[in-house]
Fold RNA polymerase, sigma 54 subunit, RpoN/SigL.
Amino acid sequence: MNLEMGLYQQQTMKLVMTQELRQAISLLQFSALELSEFLEEQALENPMMEIEERNTALKDEPVYNMPVMWHDEPSEVQEKEEEQSSPFDRIKDDRERISDYLIQQIRFLPGSEDDKRVLTHMARNVSDSGYLEGTYEETAALFPITEEYYEAYVSKLQSLEPAGIGARSLKECLLLQLERQSPRNHFAEMLIKDHLEDLAARKWKQIAKNLDTSLEEIQQVYDDVQKLDPYPGSSFGGGDHPGHLYPDVYVERDGDRFVVRLNNDGLPKIRMNRQYRHLLETKEEGEATEYAKKKYKQLVWLLKSIDQRQQTIRNITEAIVHFQHDFFEKGPSAIKPLTLKDVAEEADVHESTVSRTTNQKYVQTPHGLFELKYFFSAGMNNSTGEQTSTFVIKSMIKDLIAQENKQKPLSDQKIAEYIKEEHDISISRRAIAKYRRVLNIPSSSKRKRY
């Protein structure tokens, strides 16, 4: 074998990911709130860019509550006629954190400043879910206290609002809430203290036998415990989702068809700073002029990227409306199987573009507010080859379980047989169990009531 060294010319094609292309892709992925924050950051870095102040209130824009899970019926639109400087002012993204709320209460407690300093430190170690993180050893490294005094501080912290705050375990959290009830249910407290795991696992017969009590009493305690809050800090800031969401796009009925309208009002208005315009018009060369031209090009590219983002959202939403016309006509029960590939071909874009565009983007429909990803699901065939969306199948399972006799709940096999008989869809028991777990519905043995 001869290995020769030399210089050769070779022609290749290579995709270069420029900074502008990265920015365009990022804008497509951003939610409306993230895009607004990004534009404000860009305005600080680019003197040619200016975000227009909004003095006009958006009176006619409603506030929308997001459904808790996909399979819940969307709540009705709750309209508020409040005047706001920006729709993003209504998003509870800057809500007070639980630690701040605790510190406010500590300021009004009786006691020395040293006590309040220790309590304030502990309050800052309360997680967003409401649990006390950290140990006695960590606290003692900062403050000269004994373990006995530490437990006294913990009790003081746990006496604050809301009930259950500052707990170090789920058991302690539930007990703190039960202890504040009036009248107190000592039997429930005893069950939580000594039999929490068996109660959660629905080993009610075993508990009833050991305590010589009835199944009905055990079941009643279980129902009462379900009303307690396992995460007492979650109603404050720091959660994953804001309390309210605004749609990126609207789908509205226009006669016998549906039209797509972008929600451009939710984005900041951008304009060029007039104070720097003269630098673009001057014929003189210099660092200031070159800098101004560079920043102007960045501004033009940013505006083009935003326009492209909005147009892509519109095109993909129109493709979804084309495939899911029955959903917009009749509601969630009529949703059809749909893949990213179907929409990509209809909108003439790549599948990855559809995936980026539908993530964290919301559409207001005649049936409520939905994330665009909601409309994609696999399907199952019946005997005639017609496909039914897995969303619809999940809805069938949910409705069957809601209507079942709780003393004789339906097994997964019975549900599969019913769907086959009533809807001519063959589905395995294992698939039913899988969808049931997705819906957070326990097995038949754990749904049984006495």
Residues 55-94, 239-243 have pLDDT under 50 and may be disordered.
